[in-house]
């Protein structure tokens, strides 16, 4: 589904990624975890075409996407829920959803606004409300719904639950489980390891711009020294 090989990238003279390598199989949910500033968001920006890869290669469903413009990568099937909630504040809920909706060719059971409402009933209740009046959790549901309406093959969530109350986080996790069970591939960047345990197949620890450890949530849970060394917990 997605493959990064030896990807290097950075900002100006500062290099941040030093050979990022990982793959996501069809229908898999994987994570990038690690301390702040290790290059997780930079990896997302590079794979989305928002930051140039200086070397290495990225492919999606077997096709090279390295350094394609972001709109083409999005159209090829990558839906992004970026860091920081970015709903269109001046639009209401339904307008936000309709703004990015795109019918997915021959895909069976494509995402529609109604299907998003059945995943997030609160959004339906608030459909005429302007996005700026929503709670943080509702805004995040809106941004996830918007990404789904691009009918992605791969959903990328960068700190989607950051700053949300535990109960709302649980709701988002539950929705991600539903999406996983529907066969969607998901790349998660998050800090809530305990909550990711039943969602993620493989964790990837990122340290100084590369993946230094890959393993299952159980392996990570059973290795306090590893968590202490790379995650500081
Ligand atoms: N726009 C930018 N210009 C210059 N340097 C940047 C920029 N964005 C990020 N960096 C630097 O790149 C490094 C990696 O940042 P990145 O955001 O990828 O880390 P991260 O692992 O996602 O951590 P966090 O959880 O803090 O977002 C950091 O040292 C950061 O200061």
UniProtKB/TrEMBL annotation:
UniProt keyword annotation of RNA-binding present: no
Entry keyword set: Amino-acid transport, ATP-binding, Cell membrane, Membrane, Nucleotide-binding, Transport
Membership in a protein family: Belongs to the ABC transporter superfamily.
Family matches, as Gene3D superfamilies: P-loop containing nucleotide triphosphate hydrolases
A GO BP annotation: L-amino acid transport
Source organism per UniProt: Pigmentiphaga aceris
Residue ranges annotated for the ABC transporter domain, each copy included: 2-233
Protein name: ABC transporter ATP-binding protein
GO molecular function: ATP binding; ATP hydrolysis activity; branched-chain amino acid transmembrane transporter activity
Hydrolase is among the record's keywords: no
UniProt cross-references to PROSITE patterns, sorted A to Z: ABC_TRANSPORTER_1, ABC_TRANSPORTER_2
